[in-house]
Amino acid sequence: MMENLKDWMALTQLYADYASAVDSGNWNLWPEFFTERCIYRLQPRENFERGFPLATLSFESQGMLKDRVYGIQETLFHDPYYQRHIVGAPLVHKVEDGRIYSEANYVVIRTKLNQLSTVFNAGRYIDEIVSTPNGLKFASRLAIYDSEMIPNSIIYPV
Questions:
Q1: Whole-model pTM?
Q2: Which residues form the domain of 28?
Q3: Where is the SnoaL-like domain (predicted)?
């Protein structure tokens, strides 16, 4: 579905760069992966499959993502932890009207200081990606997690 290897490599690089950015702890990088008008939603699989709108996190603009970054850096108090994303190769469903519709499985490993690493969240990204003068960006990223059980707080982006 991708027209050439260069397009496929750009898409794969977007996924890798996103994971690297959210694992780095430099939260100011995160909103830059999205268009100005975008959707980012972290939602349980059950709600997604039933068409229910309830989501654990839901943002509808790059400005809202920047507000979340401010909250992470300035107002939220929690035990510090590291996270590591393992993201599968993107599966492209279609390319239409300049948009790439793709998905990829993910697992997020969380490591708290002086504790063993544990699986924090697992699921799939369902993405709508557009080309911009600054490269590929997410117009929509749905992180649909598999388990109905999640930690009592999700601080960092998935």
A1: 0.93
A2: 5-145
A3: 5-141
